[in-house]
Structures are given as C-alpha cells and as structure tokens.
Amino acid sequence: QVQLQESGPGLVKPSQTLSLTCTVSDGSITTNPYNWHWIRQPPGKGLEWIADIAYSGITNYSPSLKSRTSVSRDTSKNQFTLQLTSVTPEDTAVYYCARSAPQRGYDYWGQGTQVTVSS
C-alpha cells in the first residue's frame, strides 16, 4: 500500500515562499508509469491541480500558477517538493500530494496539510 505524507509549515507570511515536501512510502517515485501531483483546496472551493512530476522527472504546471511554482524531487529520499513563491492570502488552502496512474487516475493521496498565508 503506497503511502504519501505532506510536510511543511502551516503558516506562511505574504510575499514569502511556500515549501512543502511529500514523502512516499512503499512505492518508488521513479517507477514507470506513475505521476506525482500537488493539488490544493482553498476554503469553500473545489480541488485545484497545481503541478506534477513524472516518474521520469518531467514536470508539468498549471498555467495559472506556472510563473510561481516549482516542483522537484529527491530520489534518494523518495520525496518530491513544491515551492510556491510570492504567496498571498489567496494561496491559503489544504495542500495534497497524490499519485496517478494511466487508466486509473488518482489512486493514492496524502492526508493533506493546511497552509495559511497571513501576516
């Protein structure tokens, strides 16, 4: 059973950079054909896809967030990370990491971590 766990600060000040890490257990982030995602849900709104990093290391970003987003990975630790720069209160959300597989969509999710942007 693959397990994903988000970690990072729960409070970030406006204009700073939000950094989150997803640690994956019982499944390698380099295994074909899986992609690894960051998704968020602002309060009272639906899920918003942010970015992903494929098993190959190729990254994809939401056009609306691309200019502020970077996803990377540390294969030795089986982790992938999200950096979101110049945050505003509108970036307040529960942030999730998740895995997807062809034909199956998202099949494993982390429990989510609340990030609040406030001074």
Description:
- The structure is a single chain.
- The protein is mainly β.
- Helix content is 0%, strand content 53%.
- The chain has strands at residues 3-7, 11-12, 18-25, 35-41, 48-54, 59-61, 69-74, 79-84, 93-101, 105-109, 113-117.
- The strands form two sheets. Strands 2, 4, 5, 6, 9, 10 and 11 form a seven-stranded mixed sheet that branches. A four-stranded antiparallel sheet has the order 1-3-8-7, with no helix packed on it.
- The mean pLDDT is 97.
* Number of DSSP strand runs: 11
In angstroms, what separates the terminal alpha carbons?
39 Å
Shape: globular
Helix content: under 10%
Total helical segments: 0
Give the helices and strands as they follow along the chain. EEEEEEEEEEE
Could you give the topology of this structure?
Blueprint: E1 3-7, E2 11-12, E3 18-25, E4 35-41, E5 48-54, E6 59-61, E7 69-74, E8 79-84, E9 93-101, E10 105-109, E11 113-117
Condensed summary:
The chain has 119 residues and is mostly beta strands. Helices cover 0% and strands 53% of the residues. The strands form two sheets. Strands 2, 4, 5, 6, 9, 10 and 11 form a seven-stranded mixed sheet that branches. It has a four-stranded antiparallel sheet with strand order 1-3-8-7, with no helix packed on it.
Features:
119 residues, mainly beta
